[in-house]
Design goal:
The protein has three helices and no strands. By secondary structure, the chain is an all-alpha fold.
Length: 79
């Protein structure tokens, strides 16, 4: 499996952080945060598609690898 870059992991984690910020919001605050999440999500999806094309892998396999790598990067090594 090709290496997943730190940049792809960073972008995925940023999108997930923006999604998590939706909790408890409503109205205009929700809509504004949803737009930030949508933008971050589009950024990571574009980066995944570029990486897939550059490496000859399917977009789905790259996305799966990015998600796994982002989860591993987020785990506490002390646990």
């Amino acid at each position: 499996m090709a290496e997943i870059s730190d940049e792809l992991i960073r972008l995925e984690r940023l999108a997930e952080e923006e999604r998590a910020k939706l909790a408890g919001l409503s109205g205009g605050a929700y809509e504004a945060q949803r737009e930030r999440w949508r933008s971050a999500s589009e950024n990571v999806q574009s980066a995944i598609a570029r990486h897939a094309e550059a490496t000859g892998r399917s977009r789905e396999s790259v996305e799966e690898a990015v998600l796994k790598a982002a989860r591993r990067a987020h785990e506490d090594p002390a646990e």
